Amino acid sequence: MTDPDSSINPSRETLFGANPWVVGIYSKDTGKYIAAGTLIRYDALLTSAQALADIPQDQLLVEAGNWDRLSEVESLPHLNRSVRSIDVNENLVALVHLDTPFYPTLPHIVPACLPRKSDAAYTEKSCQTVGWGQPKINGSASDRMWFKKYSVMSREDCDYYLGEDPNLGYGKFCATDADNMFSPRNIGGGLFCAENETVIAGIALSSGGWEPENEAVLFASVPHYLDWILDKLSPYNGAELQVEII
């Protein structure tokens, strides 16, 4: 994961291939963008269950390797896959199984690592989220993948911003823009934290436009659901498709 400096990159634009685990989920019927997702192996991804709730799985299309959604500027191809099945937990987390794995030889399509279960507490860690939908700059007709640095919030701070939630801390946590500027809400998108390796720590549960005021964003905690994720992946395990855990 690159760690670009937003002070010298005010557009917060990522580099092509810097986040190879990020995918877009679209409607086959309309081509409409539905949500972001994160590959955790070449045949499976995590996203928000709520974002997919009203759409038949045979109408979902997963696109990997894209960087600019509105133009063909990438040096390597986008690849599409259909959905074989979806597992859902508590109507928060969706584990999407693809009908065909992505090719494991392409540098711009690579799964993210899952965290250890012991990594459940990310409070005060600086992470980042990436996605699409940033407001156009100077009338640009592009929609390139952006990044935002996020800081994970304490339970007390999250309660202050979002109201008390008895289930908070049991599968959910809050994070906010580390630069205290905007709240890009990218439903289904991952929150990525880097120490020795980059891991997917959370899945965004809310969506909307770029807000002019910094607000807390709610995430599903991936460590909390790790046992369930591994259990649901096990029927599909193959020697060349083992999930990568650091």
TrEMBL record:
UniProt KW keywords: Disulfide bond
Domain Peptidase S1: 8-234
Organism of derivation: Drosophila kikkawai (Fruit fly)
Origin organism lineage: Eukaryota, Metazoa, Ecdysozoa, Arthropoda, Hexapoda
Signal sequence segment: none
Keyword Plastid: no
Protein family per UniProt: Belongs to the peptidase S1 family. CLIP subfamily.
UniProt name for this protein: Phenoloxidase-activating factor 2-like isoform X3
Gene3D superfamilies per UniProt: Trypsin-like serine proteases
SUPFAM superfamilies xrefs: Trypsin-like serine proteases (SSF50494)
Source species, domain of life: Eukaryota
InterPro entries found in the cross-reference section: Peptidase_S1_PA, Peptidase_S1_PA_chymotrypsin, Ser/Thr_Proteases_Immune/Dev, Trypsin_dom
The keyword Amino-acid biosynthesis belongs to this UniProt entry's keyword annotation: no
SMART domains, A to Z: Tryp_SPc
PANTHER family: TRYPTASE-RELATED
Xref: Pfam families: Trypsin (PF00089)
